[in-house]
């Protein structure tokens, strides 16, 4: 497969190529899907190691189902988000109550120390606020506002109506705003 | 503030997949990737010597006929008595009689002399 053609090939076509033994398709799918899956899992769990396990497991399930993948029935990303949500829910049930953001992170040399600390504090605050939401609210908010998906896609992933998605994201955003309202100055937001 | 936090979260390094995760996922992908192995698929189970002989004889119809003939031969061998057999054959299996299939007279020159 030519390198310049990789971006134009749909996930559906790539999964067929993968199932037919095309090693380039395996690489492209890995590079295309892993960041999305991991990012979503991380926002759902708030823990890198757990999110990495979930991302790896979700993709293992995709590799296994690839030969039987039914074209046109569901988008691969939709299916993956669903798998990630289920895996995250399972893990959250087991680890409920345990601090989820206790894993130390590597330093970023590029950012200044102050900026880096402030960014970290903001992301920690956001994650804490996300963790305070119900699993379904968090999933809807993350899919809509961080993963950038549209409501129809989210409705398919969560298997609920578009109206229910709108309601979940609206309530989730209100809950987040409330959870973060007292930390505006601490996080360096002087105006909105 | 919330929108700014969401925006920052989209580019948050901590939510970015690390190279070692990508390597692990790719290793899984390669390990689980179906392969079309033409040599393996063409492999048929090896036939036993008996099966090869069976095939060479022509399969069930031929082998059935052959077996029937063999059994009949064995049966004839057991039950045959001089009375049951034609004269010529009966005298062949008689132990006390010397009979030759061809009897040539001694005086005959068999047409060898001119």
From TrEMBL, chain A:
Transmembrane segments: none annotated. Residues 32-96 form the RNA polymerase sigma-70 region domain. Pfam families: Sigma70_r2, Sigma70_r4_2. Gene3D superfamilies: 1.10.1740.10, Winged helix-like DNA-binding domain superfamily/Winged helix DNA-binding domain. The keyword DNA-binding applies. Residues 124-176 form the RNA polymerase sigma factor 70 region 4 type domain. GO terms for biological process: DNA-templated transcription initiation. Keywords: DNA-binding, Sigma factor, Transcription, Transcription regulation. SUPFAM superfamilies: Sigma2 domain of RNA polymerase sigma factors, Sigma3 and sigma4 domains of RNA polymerase sigma factors. InterPro entries: RNA_pol_sigma-70-like, RNA_pol_sigma-70_dom, RNA_pol_sigma70_r2, RNA_pol_sigma70_r4_t2, RNA_pol_sigma_r2, RNA_pol_sigma_r3/r4-like, WH-like_DNA-bd_sf. Coiled coil: none annotated. It comes from the Bacteria. One of its GO terms (molecular function) is sigma factor activity. The keyword Transmembrane helix does not apply. Belongs to the sigma-70 factor family. ECF subfamily. This is RNA polymerase, sigma subunit, ECF family. It comes from Shimia gijangensis.
TrEMBL record, chain B:
It comes from the Bacteria. This is Dihydroorotate dehydrogenase. The lineage of its organism: Bacteria, Pseudomonadati, Pseudomonadota, Alphaproteobacteria, Rhodobacterales.
């Amino acid at each position: 497969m030519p390198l310049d053609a990789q971006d134009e090939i749909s996930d559906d076509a790539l999964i067929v190529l993968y199932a037919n033994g095309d090693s380039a398709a395996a690489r492209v799918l890995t590079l295309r899907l892993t960041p999305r899956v991991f990012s979503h899992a991380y926002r759902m769990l708030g823990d890198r190691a757990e999110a990495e396990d979930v991302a790896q497991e979700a993709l293992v399930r995709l590799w296994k189902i690839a030969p039987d993948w039914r074209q046109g029935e569901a988008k691969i990303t939709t299916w993956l988000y669903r798998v990630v949500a289920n895996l995250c829910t399972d893990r959250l049930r087991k680890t409920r109550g345990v601090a989820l953001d206790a894993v130390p992170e590597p330093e970023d040399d590029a950012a200044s120390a102050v900026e880096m600390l402030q960014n970290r504090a903001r992301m920690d605050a956001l994650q804490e606020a996300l963790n305070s939401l119900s699993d379904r609210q968090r999933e809807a908010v993350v899919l809509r506002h961080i993963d950038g998906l549209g409501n129809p896609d989210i409705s398919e992933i969560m298997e609920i109506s578009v109206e229910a998605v709108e309601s979940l994201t609206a309530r989730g955003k209100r809950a987040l705003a409330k959870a973060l309202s007292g930390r505006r100055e601490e996080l360096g937001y002087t105006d909105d | 503030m919330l929108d700014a936090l969401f925006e920052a979260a989209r580019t948050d390094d901590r939510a970015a997949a690390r190279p070692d995760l990508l390597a692990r996922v790719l290793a899984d992908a390669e390990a689980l990737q179906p392969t079309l192995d033409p040599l393996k698929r063409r492999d048929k189970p090896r036939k036993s010597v008996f099966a090869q002989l069976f095939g060479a004889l022509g399969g069930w119809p031929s082998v059935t006929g052959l077996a029937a003939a063999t059994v009949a031969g064995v049966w004839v061998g057991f039950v045959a008595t001089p009375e049951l057999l034609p004269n010529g054959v009966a005298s062949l299996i008689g132990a006390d009689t010397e009979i030759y299939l061809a009897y040539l007279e001694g005086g005959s020159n068999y047409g060898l002399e001119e």
